[in-house]
Every structure is written in structure tokens, then in C-alpha cells.
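Morning!

This is the sequence you dropped in the shared folder:
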Amino acid sequence: MFSYSIGGRKKQRLGISTNEEYVELILGRQTELQFLNGFEHPQTDLITKDGLSRFNWGLIPSWVKTAEDASKLRKQTLNAVSETVFEKPSFRQPIRTKRCLIPSSGFFEWRHEGKFTYPHYISLKNTDIFFFAGIYDEWTDRTTGEIIPTYSILTTEANPLMAKIHNTKKRMPVILPAGMEKVWLDTSLKEPDIKELCKPLDQDLMEAYTINRIRPSQAMANKEEALQPFHYPELEKNELF
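The structure's back. C-alpha cells below.
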């Protein structure tokens, strides 16, 4: 998962138990729809145990020595595989004490059928904002002295809905269950409990539909029109068999 959205249209909430403290914190800052493309390493709002901060997408570990190494590494750390996050050098320290909440209103994934890909937009039912499970670190550029805060989004095995959409690697972002945001930020949380929170979200809480083949970097990006449902007859035909 390399792109997601924040802000935009509103859904009616129907008794969702999402932690309102964090939702309102984000809605107070983010009112316009914004598409975020990980390969551009955008700076965006996220929540740590210390509150709301701005971080760049693509984690740079604090131990990286040069700007050249940092530039190379962050291309590989947009996502962090939750099953191995306690083992990988880039992630094994942040996952223990530097966890964060990454707000989203939905995300994009592509289904592969033959030579073609079909973009889908995935969100949660009945709620405007949900949170990806993230980790962060701060890297100091030894040449300039600048401190650069960065983050990664954790991924997990796909639930049945996401396995159908992301039908090559069958992965999905770790979406925190409603009400578990504060638990994720708790620095005293132990490894087994962290792993428990990294399980795939129940597919019944999610919804997805196909959209037009517009990449986040194109002209319609950051506009509601980009999220309009778009039907592919050939894809619908395949669903019958």
C-alpha cells in the first residue's frame, strides 16, 4: 500500500466507538481532501504519544549515517511487514517504543487481471477517519544538523476482501480496531500484545469499490471526482465465473 487519502467527504457515524479524542484532533487540522503518494515522501500529520506532529513518509532509522544512505533506505521503508518488524534492523527499535497513529479516510489498491490493473478505493463503513498502525523514528542529517522525523505504515496478511483486491501479494495495511488507538501508543505494551493488534481487520467493517485509473499525481488528484465509483464491465463479467 503506497497511497492513501485523508479528509474529504463525510459519512454519517452510526455508533462507531473510534476514539473521538484522536479523530477530532485530525479533523481540526485536515479539512481538504488530500491524496498521499508514498514515493513522493510527503509530510503529513500523525499522532504519537506526545501529540500531533508532522512526519515524512518513509522511515529513516536514527543510526543511518549519510544523506545518500537515508535517501536510498526510505524508498524501502514506506511499509513495514508486521510479521518481521521485530527482526528487521530498521524497525525493531521503533516498534517497541515509537508507535504512532496514521489517520486516513481511505486507501488505494490495485487488482491484477491479466495485463490490466483495476484501482480500488477502500475505506471503513460509517466513519470518516480511521488509523493505520505506524512506527516512527527521527534521523539527524550530520551535514546540516536538521532533524527529520519519518514513519512507516505496518502491513499484515490480507483479509478475504483485501485478498480479492490485492490479489498478487495479498497484503493490507494494519488498521487499528476502533477504540484501540490509545493502546497502540502505550510504550509499555509488550511484543505479544503488539502482534495481536497487527491482525487483519474484520472485512465486515470495510467497503471497497473500483475507481477510474487516475493516479494520485494526476490532475484530478485531491479532488472528490477521483473517488467516484467507476465500473469495468470486463471485471464485472469475470465475477460471474
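Headline: Residues 12-17 have pLDDT under 50 and may be disordered.

More detail when I'm at my desk.
O.
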